[in-house]
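Lab meeting prep.
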Amino acid sequence: MKRILTSFFILTIVTLLCVAQEQPQLGIVNRTQCTGFWRYDFNYQTTDSDGETPIVLSAAIFLSTKFHEKTDEAKGLALMNHYTITTDAERPTNVTGQFSLEGFIQGSGFIIIESDGIGFGQTVDRQQNYLKGRTTARIDIDAFIAGRELLRQEGISFGNLVANLGYSQGGHGGMWVNRLVAEGYRSDELPKIDYCIIGGGPYDMYSQLNGMFGEGVSYYPVAIPLILNSIIDDSDALTYNDVFRPEFVEKIPEWFDSKKYKAAEINNLIYQTFGGSAETGIQMSAILTDEFINPESAAQKAAGEWLKENSLVYDDWSPIATDHIVFFHSHDDEVVPYVNMESMNQFLTNQGYTNYEIKDVSGKGHTDTGMYYAMQAKSLLTAFEPVGAVESIDAETSNDTPVDVYTIDGCLLMRQVSPRDAYNRLSRGVYIIGNKKVVK
């Protein structure tokens, strides 16, 4: 008996030590010198998709060499919401090249903080929470706050500006970040966002899916299983067999669960196996069940409710804690149709939020618009240097000398007015008052 108790005690101690060793280390775990910049990988504490269960996720900080070497101060920090990826090799904590969204934009004078999210990096063994709005935003905000504290501990200097960035899936996530900040999530640590640059986001997935069903064609079939997997994960009423044809269900473990293939590669596999092409798209009936395609079916109605809940235009909210939003979208976007931008535009108008602008990128598809977005985001962030309050101008203009007032794009708004009068008359936004950039 004594020998049994001793063996049990030793086994318990070994088990506890193994569990302790399996717990991910919090904080910075790796520093990688990339092409023209540095990447710090770190683990941080957040909550799982239920909003309650503690979980540790991985994330990355992207900073230029001068910030890493502490020879200069960054203008601020940018929260990056990452775009659609399907292979673990594409996760933010694996990005090393300048020819990436992170590598390109880090040269703007801002330091970028980006989470791997659930489903990659630290949690590669799990399904990704694709387009789960509240979950994604919460994870990204937690990563931003944790990364900011780690930068302070490293002694790296940065201004107090906060930018919010994201394209495609990241555009959806970025607007959800605006929403959670407006709702007061961790408001003592992130009370507002100074500048938001968003592109190509599926803000109204419900209308987009209805359009796809109406046309009967998808030009980006890889997204359908990713979205429906999130719906099925949140639903007790749906299974893969309710949604996909049996021959497609058989492919899911290899194409999606393995995290081995890039989105473009999965698209090609779908086309090769079930017909269609990037030019013609694929008939949705080739991969979806007849029951699910039926708009009166319980399965499609359940999916529709989820899409509305995770879209951004069906609830009463306003990005009141975001000073300015710039959208980029193309009327020719074949992946995220322009109906998403139209719905967001109408929604913001109805909410009385006016401090945004839409940059039309017609003539470009989704991928080309993404490259244009990256170039423009870098340019806008590089030029963004608000002084924050008109009093700082008045202090240097004791006689209140009349000035001209321009939009940030150079359009004349007022001629020869006092800085204080101009400030009082302007709505919230970024302006040139005299020769100074001012954020109201």
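Slide two material, second protein:
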Amino acid sequence: MFSAGEVVIYGTQGVCCVKEISTMKFGSTKGEYYILNPVSDPKSVVYVPTEKPALVAKMRPVLSPEELETLIEEASSQRLEWIENDNERKDYCDRVIKNGDRAEIMRMIEMLYLRREELKDQKKHFHNIDAQYLKAAERLLHDEFAYVLGIGIEDVPEYIRSHMK
């Protein structure tokens, strides 16, 4: 169970602060909800019913700076090969974004980034869907890194590059 004031990652919303836990009524349904404010958009509010384990499972504590360092080290030693089949790649990217496994997100970002650079060198087009997955994955990962490290979101890629083996 999370407490008011805790900072968590929630699904694809990214870093959120647990504003409070409150009993609320939506339509005819009354229940207890986590009330989250995304750090990147403090005016937004996300309501997570505490009685829905599948939704609560999407809430995870943010990593510590030491855990981020370990994550970078592990991800840099496990490169993911390009997935040639468009449908398989789409399924993989969907699954990674939804599961929120940070190491897998880092490997996916690297895979997509390397492919984009390879195509750029060949003066070929990077698929829009791949660009969208890259942007979504970077937003999730960079949001947490920036928050935990106290740096600007624009500084995260360089931070990761400088800490990779």
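Talking points for slide two:
The first strand starts at residue 7 and ends at 10.
The CA atoms of residues 65 and 149 lie 6 Å apart.
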